[in-house]
């Protein structure tokens, strides 16, 4: 069976709930509209689901034409409005300095209340994806979810736990690992996987509750710890985009 796109996901605000889309524009900076904003603490350090697991229960919607952002909280409350940019600040993004602009509005107040500490919503000059341009696209074989589920004795693992942009069906488990360093056509785009995506405690969290209830890291260690990899506990690959293009659910995925 030929490989094809099974799902596409993104989130306008890094760490918040994923959106699942039928088609997207994939550019050198990543999926259009993905991780346009992120959150930092008082010192400027990036705040993630590790810090506040409940962020996964908040849905964000950004309207590019109106330049408006709406957050829908788990209790149904909504906070929205036109995005107003404030001063430029230096943030710490995975131990690296990154310049961003403060986003002025009620979003930071609501998220600070949920986190129990002062947070600030910021907008970087480039998308807030991990690994920069080499992580513009992330791909995971759907069979890989089944393989990990078998190890854990739970069937297939929830794909949302791994927050990957593209799922690929029609591959053997972890076949995506063999694409590292090769050109791969994804819909109308072409990408080159640069390495494995190493996993952390976020993948143990239930996307519907934020509670850690599945030891994905123990499962990965059981059968993936000793393989050759670019990052520990690998699951999926990250890729740079060398030819931007449209990607749709059902599109073919084929090493070039």
Task: Write up this protein.
α2 (142-152) packs across α3 (216-224). With 256 residues, the chain is mostly beta strands. The strands form 4 sheets. An 8-stranded mixed sheet has the order 2-1-14-13-17-16-15-19. The model has no long low-confidence stretch (mean pLDDT 96). The chain starts with a strand and ends with a strand. It has 3 helices and 19 strands.
Question: What is the topological layout?
Answer:
Layout: E1 4-10, E2 19-21, E3 23-27, E4 30-31, E5 38-40, E6 46-47, E7 59-63, E8 68-72, E9 78-82, E10 84-93, E11 96-104, H1 107-115, E12 120-124, E13 137-141, H2 142-152, E14 166-169, E15 184-186, E16 189-198, H3 216-224, E17 234-243, E18 245-248, E19 253-255
Parallel strand pairs: 13-14
Antiparallel strand pairs: 1-2, 1-14, 3-4, 3-18, 5-6, 5-12, 7-8, 8-9, 10-11, 11-12, 13-17, 15-16, 15-19, 16-17
Helix pairs in contact: 2-3
